Amino acid sequence: MRKRMFGDSGLETSVIGYGGWPMGRGMYGAFDDNEAIAAARASFDNGVTLFDTAAVYGWGYGEKLMGKAIKDFRDEIVLVTKGAREWVRDNPDRRSATVSDSDPKRLTASIDESLQRLQTDYIDLFLIHWPDHTRAFSEPMEALEKAKKAGKIRHTGVSNFNVAMMSESRETSPIITNQIGYHIFDRRPEAEVMPYVRENGMGIMAYGSLAHGLLTGTWGADKTFAEDDWRGGGANFGINSWGAENLAANVAVVEKLKVIAADNGKTIPQLSIAWVLANDSISVALAGSVTPAEATENIGGDWEMSAELKKEIDDLVLSEGSGVGLSGMEIAT
């Protein structure tokens, strides 16, 4: 698999990363733990060297499962997790009520909790999951720098931050990445976030490469979601790609994308991941999977997409898609 750097940080990654959000039980519907573990291991066997998770995925469960999955090859990968997103811990019925909280004391304690759940003594790249608007960004960055000096983390980054937030954070810690949503139906980061990252020697981790399932090619216009699936409301980080008013139109677009993919000897997930990687601001495209078959298919997204093919895809989605996040819009925070 091809490799890329996180800007000028010296940290290298496979261009496709294993996205661990679906491992968070209670967030993406039902799955089998052993199959999910096998999916992560199949990804490693096929050249994936970056594995991403977060404390809030399944309210800790996702990290625990990730720790089991990677324990045999922990030192051969870039392990990424995220914190400063808190949840109600003493009442299971209210765990989904999460809030951004980057209080330095709580953040420091949460790093230790993540290390324990992940069965490791260091995290290669630790991100602040969402901006906390109640305090200066220097506060969590100072906590991360202390954790770095203690050997608990090696690199720092952020997720879902806009340009001003990244700039303020960089005054305290040399963050190397911003993890943001980016896929065929959402180009908002192209306007401001990507130019800033390029100019400052950082790299972008793109999450939602398959539009959180829309670009798997398995959805119909009557798609429904289980109660424990966050996608049920139709909202997608500030856009509404699969809300009731947009789903049918976008499923129709996906059907046309399937034809384009087949004409190029690819599946639609492979086309979608390659589209993300066609942007040279992207260090790694994250793709989640909970079965080895899904993981193996995603690996096929590592190929060079021509500018002509990318334009064909863009023209189709921008002309016929509905609820598409356009490049002129700011990233939702």
Question: What does this 3D model show about the protein?
Answer:
The protein is of the alpha/beta class. The chain has a single domain, classed as TIM Barrel. The protein is built from 10 helices and 12 strands. The two termini are 33 Å apart. The model has no long low-confidence stretch (mean pLDDT 94).
What does the secondary structure layout of this molecule look like, with pairings?
Layout: E1 3-5, E2 12-14, E3 16-19, H1 33-45, E4 50-52, H2 61-70, E5 78-83, E6 85-87, E7 98-100, H3 104-118, E8 123-128, H4 138-149, E9 153-159, H5 163-170, E10 177-181, H6 193-199, E11 203-207, H7 247-263, H8 268-277, E12 282-288, H9 292-299, H10 307-320
Parallel strand pairs: 3-4, 3-12, 4-5, 5-8, 8-9, 9-10, 10-11, 11-12
Antiparallel strand pairs: 1-2, 6-7
Helix pairs in contact: 1-2, 1-9, 2-3, 3-4, 7-10
Radius of gyration: 19 Å
**Main sheet summary:** 8 strands, parallel, barrel
Helix fraction by DSSP (H/I, runs of at least 4) = 25-40%
Work out the helix count. 10
Order of helices and strands: EEEHEHEEEHEHEHEHEHHEHH
Q: Name the structural class.
A: alpha/beta
- What's the CATH superfamily, by name? NADP-dependent oxidoreductase domain
**What is the CATH C-level name?**
Alpha Beta
